[in-house]
Amino acid sequence: MNIFETITLSLTAIMRNRLRSFLTTLGVVIGVFSVILLVALVSGLQSFITDQISSFGSNLVFVIPGQVTGAGRGPGGSTVNRLQFQDVNNLKRELKGKADVSTVTQKAASAKYNSKISKNMTISGVEDIYPKIVTAVQTAQGRFINKAESNSGKRVAVLGPTAVKNLFGDSNPLNKTITINNTKYQVIGVIKPRGAAFGVDQDNSAFVPLEAQRKQFGIDQPNAIYISVYKTEDINSVQAETKTLLEKRVSADDFTVQTQEQALSTISQITGVLTLALGGIAAISLIVGGIGVMNIMLVSVTERTREIGLRKALGARSKDIRNQFLIEALTLSGVGGIIGIIFGVGIALLVDQFVFTTTITWWSIALSFGFSMLVGVIFGVTPAIRASRLDPIQALRYE
Amino acid sequence: MTEYVNMPSLIKLSNVNKIFQLDEELTFQALKNINLEIKKGEFVAIIGPSGSGKSTLMNILGLLDHPTSGSYHLEGSDVAHLKDDHRAQLRNQKIGFVFQSFNLLARTKACENVALPLIYSGVAKEVREKQAKKSLDSVGLSDKYDSKPSQLSGGQQQRVAIARALVTNPEIIFADEPTGNLDSKSGVEILSILKRLNSEGKTIILITHDKNIAGNAQRIIRIKDGEIEK
User: Fold this and answer.
1) A162: Cα within 13 Å, side-chain hemisphere
2) Which of A359-373, B31-45, B134-148, B185-199 has the lowest mean pLDDT?
3) pLDDT tens-digit map of A187-198
4) Which pLDDT belongs to residue A186?
5) Can you tell me the distance from the alpha carbon of B136 to that of B129, in angstroms, rounded to the nearest whole number?
6) In B, residues 193-212, which contact A (CB 8 Å cutoff)?
7) A227 and A287 belong to one structural domain
8) What residue in B sits closest to A317 (Cα-Cα)?
9) Which residue of chain A comes nearest to B86, CA vs CA?
10) DSSP H or E run through B70
11) Within 13 A of B101's CA, how many CA atoms are on the CB side?
């Protein structure tokens, strides 16, 4: 009996019990679906953060509050920010000639021009060297904040394209005066579009001089310090100097100094752990699906005992019977795997379109499908062998 | 039975014993020293009350079971201790079974039921279908190719089962109480089909507990307490 006959036979049996086969398959569908979707979500998160970090220029060293370790607690949470603006100034003095030191403050606010309004804008307080550090920020029209404006804290603003659209429509925004939370700013430039990340439009934004924002909003602490090192070979020494300088004032536990490379590896460590944890949980649901397949196959063997006996009496070899049931189990889990892939990839694409970045990885598709087939073999083999070993005389007598 | 004397023997059992191990200590001897010869083309009835060992004898003759000791020659070769797969192949090629309870696959067309043994002989689908239809024609069911067992009467179902037994063109047909689940009119029909098949050259072995039914055979072998009565 050839393999195609066996497949036809198994498919016929599956189609005879449509609802039962569907429900059994559903377990595997959910397993494969969740593996693919969860891995796509975590990978999306990873590539988003990686892109953000990579959007900074190279040779960058960060100072952020608290301790960051791959396996331990992450940034934020209960961490107390002990960084001060005086640290920024001290670093500037210390690293002069080796690196540019800068900081950024951020506030959400609304801007108005005449009767038009742009809500929930991200207003960043930056220094003139900001575009050198965050290379993704490029001026499309007009110019960026200059050194004089940066030092004096003059009220000028560089807008993101969405903010321009909200406030000016198609008319020229340059040299117009807008108000951000009742304070007037003169528009001097527009940056190139950067798109949305995690549902937040990065282009509904404005850049103003750091000093201007500090005065307007009364900000007394920096969130992070960025150090752009001139020469690649100086990165390590700058990192060490920064540490030494900061430790004179605060404890080593209060801040983390990381290079861009270290930051990337920290992120990939964190997302790696996340992928394993979430993928692992999803894989458990695949095993549960496999148990469902085994259960239904055992029921099927018992139900069809007489049929098995008859087939054997008519000339089926044990191997034929075993293959028939094994292929049935494999079909249930394989079809479940394919449906799971379709749904997993489909939902991941929808999420990517409407909610936030997901990255569909080939290895998660291959792994979850392979795993579902493996589950089919592992959980199908016992019922199939049981069926193949039935004694035809006993089986024919079975009521 | 003189007409068969010079024919080669199709089946030859010599000193066959079958002992079942019921538990660690208890054994049951179902067949005792059976010697039996059946010639090609014979219509033999094996008769005996329930528990006499006739089913065990049929299982051994039908290659569904091994004898504990003794030899079984089918067409001259010893088949008593063949491996399972080899016996399955012989059952497929040489033997057709007709059971008391028909044993048709439910929700499966008559034609597909009949074609079932051919799947295991590796016959292509189109050929299987053609042969199955021919076989159904030979038992008078030309209009029932697509009927499922639930749409057929008992007598019709047993005719489908006979068609299935015939489809591989076997040497021997084993009929185990073939009329046991049928009304007397259908029973007569089935027996007349078996007689016709015998007249066409098939060897028929009928297993029954009913003397009247056994009367259809040319030779009756009586079995009691695991022994053939002389």
Assistant:
1) 17
2) A359-373
3) 999 999 887 665
4) 94
5) 11
6) none
7) no
8) B85
9) A317
10) strand B69-74
11) 10
Q: Are residues A326 and A369 in the same domain?
A: yes
A93 plus A23 within the same structural domain:
no
C-alpha pair distances (Å), A385 with each of A157, A331, B46 = 75, 17, 35
Domain boundary among A223, A249, A275: A249
Distance CA B121, CA B89 (A): 8
pLDDT in tens, A346-386: 999 998 888 778 888 888 899 888 988 988 888 899 999 99
A280 plus A185 within the same structural domain: no
| pTM score | 0.74
A190 and A315 fall within a common domain:
no
B88 Cβ under 8 Å from any chain A Cβ: yes
Is residue A178 domain-shared with residue A245, that is, in the same domain?
A: yes
Q: Please report residues of A whose CB lies closer than 8 A to that of B116.
A: 310-311, 314
Q: Nearest CA to CA, how far is A44 from chain B (Å)?
A: 50
Whether A59 maps to a domain, the answer reads no
Of A16, A315, A392, the CB nearest to B120: A315
Domain boundary among A218, A249, A280: A249
Chain A nearest CA to B106, separation (Å): 9
CA distance A312 to chain B (A): 7
Could you give the 3-state DSSP secondary structure of residue A386? helix
Q: What is the DSSP string of A110-127?
A: EEEETTEEEEEEEEEEE-
**Measured distance CA(B44)–CA(A176) in Å, rounded:** 113
DSSP calls for A337-380: HHHHHHHHHHHHHHHHHHTS-----HHHHHHHHHHHHHHHHHHH
In a domain, A75, yes or no: no
**Token pair for residue A79?**
């961490």
pLDDT tens-digit map of A49-68: 888 777 777 788 888 888 76
Q: How far is A313 from chain B (nearest CA, A)?
A: 7
CA dihedral A169, A170, A172, A173 (to 10 degrees): 20
Bridge-based pairing of strands A116-126 and A205-209 is: parallel
Q: Domain count of chain A?
A: 2
Cβ of B129 under 8 Å from any chain A Cβ? Answer: no
Q: Is residue A71 part of a domain?
A: no
Q: Does A271 lie in the same domain as A241? A: no
Least CB–CB distance from A318: residue in B64, B84, B164: B84
Residue B65: per-residue pLDDT: 92
Backbone angles phi, psi at B139, to 5 degrees: -105, 15
Domain limits at A274?
3-50+267-397
What residues of chain A lie within 8 A of the CB of B168, using their CB?
315
Q: Indicate if A93 and A131 belong to the same structural domain.
A: yes
Tokens in use for B74?
């089918």
Instruction: Centre a 10 Å sphere on the Cβ of residue A218 and count the other Cβ atoms it contains.
Output: 7
Q: What is the pLDDT of residue A73?
A: 46
The answer to whether residue A92 is domain-embedded is yes
Q: A1 and B99 in contact by Cβ < 8 A? A: no
Chain A residue at shortest CA distance from B96: A314
B218 close contact with A: CB closer than 8 A: no
Q: What is the mean pLDDT of chain B?
A: 92
